[in-house]
């Protein structure tokens, strides 16, 4: 199971190339730093998006990102947009929003850790989490170019070059990526070294059916290895997803039929666990019927938001689906009006299939007294009343303080600024034995 396939070596290689080309980088940085934000940058990122009921002309080009001149130092303290994708009533729907291209691949203070964790996952589990099938070569190369273009255009101070982007230095990890041909590594490895998102590459076959043809997915969160999904149709991949056949599939197929390279959308789903790990969370490591251990503190519970995007590549026509986990502790959201009430309601009253899929019953009774106390606290503080209807937030899918941030400074929670980096490091080390056990269990099924 644990293997040291080619990917191990691909990830390790390439960093020493061209170091001497980069000595004058500081000069370029200082020129760039003096530039102000463009108009579209100022206006494009601070809005709550509109629901995406639209389609562009099939030949419309993909939108271009605008530069965001944040330095590596700024990136290290920056928070991403604050997701609060809690819906009630909770129906399984596509729930997609138009995506501002500037947010296709986001940047925040956890970037370095996510990239390093990708490296560890690939080194430990190889083809379980990264792979491609014949027929996806063109799409993977196009994806690599698209990701490279996005990162160097959007974050010019974080991805720098002195030879017209044949070599690109990732200023946050220090690695220099060599894009000269022939490529030294698998295109999916380049993608994984630039962006912290997981990537799925979907192609439509001659039979008109969409299949997953390539993927770099180090952060599934649940216990599924991507090698079992490669070559599978979207229907098969979503077999376990509640209400897929009736509620999701028909809208997805309609959406894909009209989706042009200019139509970018995003969505967010979520679940709860009592850790911050990226590869495998405690809630999905439990064996069937097991419950959270009684000594876990309720304050350790986090919402893991799965922030997802969809776009089409113009040349290969591939659909690119990204997924990106972001954690928010219930504790840090405790003074956001209605959030504890919504979480409490959803874990008990969501449709049965969703409660089961997200394993809510493995921990909900354990955190109920804590959630009750938070709701009571909100009533005492006058943030809500006992009569306030518990329904989707007016600022859905974001927190109310979304309006107070911007792309340059980020969107830190003003009451409870949070950084779980140290905790994550510890949890990753502690979780390694559990990972191997769960993977073994999965292989035996
Ligand atoms: C187009 C490429 C897509 C791929 C490759 C993909 C892949 C996946 C995978 C691997 C899972 C986990 C399944 C499991 O638990 O075994 C999943 C879950 C799910 N997918 Fe997709 N998906 C895609 C598109 C979509 C779209 C367009 C939607 C709806 C708009 C969607 C909705 C869901 C939902 C609701 C779940 C259950 C987990 C959650 O609540 O997010 N997927 N998907």
Summarize the helices and strands and which ones pair or pack.
Blueprint: H1 6-12, H2 25-33, H3 39-44, H4 72-75, E1 97-98, H5 111-125, E2 130-132, H6 137-154, E3 159-160, E4 167-170, E5 176-178, H7 187-194, E6 198-204, E7 210-216, H8 234-237, H9 244-258, E8 265-273, H10 282-285, E9 302-312, E10 319-329, H11 339-349, H12 352-357, H13 364-380, H14 421-444
Antiparallel strand pairs: 1-8, 2-7, 3-4, 4-5, 6-7, 6-10, 8-9, 9-10
Helix pairs in contact: 1-5, 6-7, 11-13
The structure holds protoporphyrin IX containing FE.
What's the structural domain tally?
Answer: 1
- Spatially, the strands of the biggest sheet line up as 1-8-9-10-6-7-2
Please report the total strand number as a whole number. 10
Rg over alpha carbons = 22 Å
Poorly predicted segments: 1-52
- Give me the number of helical elements: 14
What does this structure look like?
The structure is a single chain. With 445 residues, the protein is an alpha+beta fold. It has one domain. The protein has helices at residues 6-12, 25-33, 39-44, 72-75, 111-125, 137-154, 187-194, 234-237, 244-258, 282-285, 339-349, 352-357, 364-380, 421-444, and strands spanning 97-98, 130-132, 159-160, 167-170, 176-178, 198-204, 210-216, 265-273, 302-312, 319-329. Strand 4 and strand 5 form a beta hairpin. The longest helix has 24 residues, at 421-444. The radius of gyration is 22 Å and the shape is globular. The model is unreliable at 1-52 (pLDDT under 50). Bound molecules: protoporphyrin IX containing FE.
